[in-house]
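Sequence in, structure out.
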Amino acid sequence: MAPTLPSLDVRRLRSYILRLPLFTRVVLAFIIIFWILELQKVWNVVHWGALIPKEINFGTMYRLNTYPLIHRNFLHAFFNTLALVPLLERFEAEHGTLLSGAMFAGPLSTLPAALYLLVERGILRQNTAILGASIWVFVLLGVEGIKAYKTNPHFVISTYRIPTWTTPLVVLLFTTALIPNTSLIGHLGSVGVGYMYGLGYLKILAPPEKVLRWIEGKLNLLGRLPHYVSIDQKTYGRYGVLPTTSNPSAARESTVQMPFIGSNHAFGSVEL
């Protein structure tokens, strides 16, 4: 009997999309809007928003935030979005909408960019531009790698015990080897930033929880904004610490599995 391919459950897909939290929806909308704008020929969106080392000055600091939202073409945007959405919606569900927005508009975008500029312009003296949402994919994979390491430090292949935190690096190596025009430096910096966040070293850059609660209450964000995730609705601890349990089997069931579907797509690297 010939094997049958699994069919796409449209209802489950629709249900998943309708349940996406607010910040994830906003990011998805910006990626789509910028891709649509790339179809016109009057304004070069890629050149405007990409992270181009020699174009960075006080007047173009916005590039440190726009480059993950801009892609070279439809396939680049599609596959990066496919990889990003499951990771980003999980992050938002765990940390809340306000903190997610603050971190991705701030250090989780600017720190990978700063590391890339330091190496590409400061050390290599090159001017290779980078763009694409997989900068965030690899940041989130780094966060997930540390989270998995805290609950299950090793996985075994044959007789070898391999640390689970190395999984994002394996994905990075396969991505670099198999997909052309990817940025090893950009991806490596992203994984490093994800590791630092997962270990709690970036918590000093996060807004104080007291301030976030005050903003939420003062503006009544939970009541006014559909799909908003309050800081009190987080699934896990603020910096990725999973809840403890005295039941070993329950602890095993709560282990976070790293999603690999679509996580090997390109962080666009282009010569401009």
